[in-house]
Amino acid sequence: MRASPLVAMGSALWAGCAPAQDLPGDPDAGSRLAHEVCGVCHVVSDEQFVDPDVGAPTFYEVADDPAVTALSLRVFLRTPHATMPDLMLSPDETDDIIAYILSLRQD
After folding, report:
1. Model confidence over 62-73: pLDDT tens digits?
2. 9 located within any domain
3. For residue 30, what is the enclosing H or E element?
4. Mutual angle of helices 91-103 and 70-78, in 10-degree steps
5. Which DSSP helix (H) or strand (E) runs through 71?
6. Which one of 13, 19, 78, 87 counts the least CB within 10 Å of its CB?
7. What is the four-CA torsion angle of 97, 98, 104, 105, rounded to 10 degrees?
8. DSSP calls for the chain
9. Is the pLDDT of residue 3 over 90?
């Protein structure tokens, strides 16, 4: 018995979905950028020796928030916020920061 074309198409689309760890972006480049740009206000890694203590969440807190996804981070980073500087990240830098933050997630 053959599968209907819709079932076959759905299976092909499902097989093409990338798991979270296969998101675009380079977490290592995102780490370097986070230390340079974001570390002024956020604790971005265990290697950060100074806590900026400005009330900004750590990148670990952001990563472990169940509501945080690649899409929500992308929207957040492209939307101005009163408490954040107006970051002008390139699309690649945005992908790298997102990949880095999501790499910190504790499963």
Report:
1. 999 999 999 999
2. no
3. helix 27-33
4. 130
5. helix 70-78
6. 19
7. 170
8. -PPPHHHHHHHHHHHHPPPGGG-SS-HHHHHHHIIIIITTTS---TT------SSPPPHHHHHH-TT--HHHHHHHHHS--TTS------HHHHHHHHHHHHHT---
9. no
User: Where residue 78 sits, what CATH number does that domain have?
Assistant: 1.10.760.10
Q: Which residue has the tokens 């950060």?
A: 48
- How many domains, the chain? 1
Whole-angstrom Cα distance, residue 44 to residue 104? 9
How confident is the model over 6-28, as a mean pLDDT?
A: 52
Mean pLDDT, the chain, integer:
81
Helix (H, G, I), strand (E, B) or coil at 96: helix
Domain residue limits at 64: 21-103
